[in-house]
Specification:
alpha/beta; Rossmann fold; single chain; 6-stranded mixed beta sheet
Length: about 230
């Protein structure tokens, strides 16, 4: 079996303000190539916090994170985040006054890759926008797009640097049912076609059922859903 793309070992997280609360307790998880994993649970259980820790956006109080068998440390977290992890958020987090193409290329720009005419990054961005059905919106400012179109831009941006894993936090929470279905199909196609991994947090039980494995985050721990 191939090694896991993303691995968490004994992750714990405690917040100390305004009062002390341990929100994650000894969480361990492995995600292998081609897998999609859904985490469900009540609001306030720490699902988004767990996703941010796995994505190196937030530190853990104890435990270790590995991406492509490389342990995440304070010195390499930014490099791993920029090159190996793609993010899709409920609120899109796009730059509204930039074009669709400029938004998709933003991660490549942050990674200091060449994004000029003829560059591999620009070619990849255009191919991804075609894949998500936005080839005709390349030069639109994102503030002119619908919610579903914005989320497709966010997905293309997440895939632009050829990440090993995509982390999605309520990726269709602000979308109508038909548009959400399109986003779900695009997300689930990523691990199947690319041999990568997808981890998503969702309240949508139907979406969760379409994933390879399902977990419920409850009382700070992950519980497999059969």
């Amino acid at each position: 079996m191939n090694p896991p793309i993303l691995e968490a070992k004994n992750i714990s997280k405690t917040f100390h303000y305004p009062k002390k609360i341990q929100i994650l307790t000894g969480i361990s998880l492995q995600i292998f190539p081609g897998e999609s994993i859904a985490i469900v649970g009540r609001s306030g259980e720490g699902k988004s916090t767990l996703l941010q820790i796995l994505g190196t956006l937030e530190t853990t109080c104890s435990g270790s994170i590995y991406v492509d068998a490389q342990e995440v440390t304070s010195s390499n977290a930014t490099q791993i985040r920029n090159t190996k992890i793609g993010f899709v958020f409920q609120d899109f987090h796009l730059l509204e006054d930039y074009t669709v193409l400029e938004n998709v290329l933003m991660r490549a720009r942050i990674a200091r890759m060449s994004i000029g005419s003829g560059s591999m990054a620009r070619k990849s961005a255009c191919e991804l926008l075609e894949k998500v059905g936005l080839a005709d919106r390349v030069n639109y400012h994102t503030k002119l797009l619908s919610g579903g179109e914005k989320q497709r831009v966010a997905l293309a941006r997440a895939m632009c640097n050829d990440p090993s894993v995509i982390l999605a936090d309520e990726p269709s929470g602000n979308l109508d049912r038909d548009t959400a279905q399109i986003i779900h199909d695009l997300l689930l196609r990523f691990p199947q076609e690319e041999g990568k991994a997808l981890l998503l947090v969702t309240h949508d039980r139907e979406l969760a059922k379409r994933c390879t494995r399902n977990y419920e985050l409850r009382n700070g721990q992950l519980h497999p859903i059969q």
